[in-house]
């Protein structure tokens, strides 16, 4: 009988060791510590999706550039370009993540763009989703 074993990150074996910070920065001490690599990966992806290209000084190609499309006409061509840009960026910066679903919605009259992003972590098999609403 074959067993499907999950790989566990070494950092997850120490529950008192922080591996990063949570988003948004809303606690009284500004930074809230994250103690699992799964949660930190989610916050890293959120950071990638909310960052525009050329926004990071030493890594100008980092970012999904979603806000740059906010005032464009939301057409099939626009969403196809965003889809391609997000998928290639996730593949480049997060090679341990497989995108399972990526959809766009919103209201062009209100300049509202909603990105629904579902993913699976390759080495653990864990899955999660992210919904980002930009106005």
Relevant terms:
two-stranded antiparallel sheet; alpha+beta; Nuclear Transport Factor 2, Chain: A; single chain; three-stranded antiparallel beta sheet; 5 strands; globular; 2 helices
Write a short abstract of this structure.
With 135 residues, the protein is an alpha+beta fold.
Biggest pleated sheet? 3 strands, antiparallel
Question: What is the second-level CATH architecture?
Answer: Roll
Strand order in the sheet with the most strands: 3-4-5
Summed over residues and divided by their number, the pLDDT gives a mean of 84
Approximate shape: globular
CATH class: Alpha Beta
Please characterize this protein's 3D structure.
With 135 residues, the protein is of the alpha+beta class. The chain has helices at 37-50, 76-93, and strands at 20-21, 33-34, 97-107, 112-121, 127-134. It has one domain (10-134): Nuclear Transport Factor 2, Chain: A (Roll), CATH 3.10.450. It has a 3-stranded antiparallel β-sheet, covered by helices on one side. A two-stranded antiparallel sheet has the order 1-2. Strand 4 and strand 5 (127-134) form a beta hairpin. The termini are far apart.
Please write out the topology:
Layout: E1 20-21, E2 33-34, H1 37-50, H2 76-93, E3 97-107, E4 112-121, E5 127-134
Antiparallel strand pairs: 1-2, 3-4, 4-5
């Amino acid at each position: 009988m074959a067993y499907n074993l999950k790989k566990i990150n070494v950092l997850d074996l120490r529950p008192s060791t922080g591996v990063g910070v949570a988003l948004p920065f809303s606690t009284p001490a500004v930074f809230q510590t994250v103690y699992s690599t799964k949660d930190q990966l989610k916050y890293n992806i959120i950071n990638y999706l909310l960052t525009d290209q050329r926004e990071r000084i030493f890594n100008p190609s980092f970012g999904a550039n979603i806000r740059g499309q906010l005032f464009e006409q939301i057409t099939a061509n626009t969403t196809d370009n965003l889809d391609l840009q997000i998928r290639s960026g996730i593949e480049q910066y997060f090679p341990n993540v497989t995108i399972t679903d990526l959809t766009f919605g919103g209201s062009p009259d209100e300049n509202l763009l909603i990105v629904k992003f579902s993913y699976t972590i390759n080495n653990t098999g864990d899955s999660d989703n992210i919904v980002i609403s930009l106005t």
